[in-house]
Amino acid sequence: MSFNLAVFKTRTLSAIIFGAIMIGGLIYNQWTFLVLFAVINFGCWWEFHRLMDKIEPTYKDLPNLLRYIMILIGFSYMLYMSNPQSYPIGKWNLHDIGGYLLMGFSGLFLLGLLAFYKKISINNLLSLLAGFLYISLSWGLMIKLRGRLNIYEQTDAGLIIPIVLIATIWVNDTMAYITGSLFGKRPLSPVSPKKTWEGTISGAILAIMVISYGGHALIGLPFRLLILISFIASIMGTFGDLLESKLKRLAGVKDSGSIMPGHGGFLDRFDSLLLATPYVWLFADMFL
Length: 288
Prior knowledge:
Blueprint: H1 5-27, H2 30-55, H3 64-80, E1 88-89, E2 92-93, H4 94-115, H5 122-146, H6 160-183, E3 187-189, E4 192-196, H7 197-218, H8 223-251, H9 266-287
Antiparallel strand pairs: 1-2, 3-4
Helix pairs in contact: 1-2, 2-3, 2-5, 2-8, 3-4, 3-5, 5-9, 6-7, 6-8, 6-9, 7-8, 8-9
């Protein structure tokens, strides 16, 4: 695809504003981190329901009550995945509160199924489950990554993996767009015709190099750790992008939303991170 300067300027400006909000939420403290991803969780769910309404005709028959309860189940799961030491509320903590809310909303969901069973199909239930696995499971694991306080035996260490993960996705997306626009010739997939092999490969290589060398030189993080995390994030992030592109193609829409000029909606902006997060969490849980 050819390089469009006007589009690039729009994307860059909105990315700067969006990046400032993201960085502030990520690094200020653990509470802003949680609030940031809670907002992202709600935004992703809202757009997911809109896409499913277009993809599956019977999904429109799904009662709004069950849609909202499922969103709240996802949010409760995020709270449950928080580190009890990081989010104290008097004698309580968000982990325990999330557990109680998770049980309560799950019970309400079962009651809703009994009340509206005539309007619910198996496909609709599977779509809701897929939405939970696609959206809230990923953000819950992101909160879990933030709660890893013992990596280097310091309180702020929980930021290391999320920051490396998110930075890799940003660098990969930016470099893939620029190099693909300038040099891309061979389409990566029919699902996303504008993506090219040249942009995808060069974006991943540049992201791994920038994050690995930059993180090691500037902050002193282990080089091997940075390479592995950035590699996983780049590869799975690309698959996440293609997955969301498939959903949009099935729905017949260009963007999932319009929250960011030049970038689309929540799912458009976080599609790569949604799929990369579970795999990075799995790597961290198994090997760190």
